[in-house]
Design brief:
The chain has 99 residues and is mainly α. The protein has a single domain, classed as Helix Hairpins, CATH 1.10.287. 77% of the residues lie in helices and 0% in strands. Helix 1 runs parallel beside helix 3 and helix 2 runs antiparallel to helix 3. It is elongated. It starts with a helix and ends with a helix.
Length: 99
């Protein structure tokens, strides 16, 4: 049992050290192997645990990026009026309107 916990801690540390792109790549690979379904149950469980850790790592990285963007945008806007949106018009649509 202690050996399993040590392996889980080591796996978590290695997952935390990954970049977003590295974690996503490993997650895609892990999901692919799990979908094949050609491995023993214990190995599948270990791979599933790794997938969960990778998924959490990706989600945490995306959440952190989203928060950084929100802070940067909030700092650049003096008030809510700066957030006004305008409809995007495609050039083809403008041509049709002119006709």
């Amino acid at each position: 049992m202690a050996k399993s916990k040590q392996a889980a801690v080591k796996q978590q540390d290695s997952v935390e050290a990954l970049s977003f792109e590295g974690a996503l790549e490993q997650l895609e690979s892990t999901v692919g192997r799990l979908e094949e379904g050609e491995m023993p149950l214990e190995e599948s469980l270990e791979l599933f645990e790794k997938g969960v850790a990778l998924s959490r790592r990706c989600a945490e990285t995306l959440e952190a990026a989203e928060k950084r963007i929100e802070v940067l945008v909030a700092e650049s806007a003096e008030n809510e009026d700066d957030w006004a949106t305008e409809a995007f018009e495609h050039e083809d649509e403008e041509d049709e309107l002119d006709d």
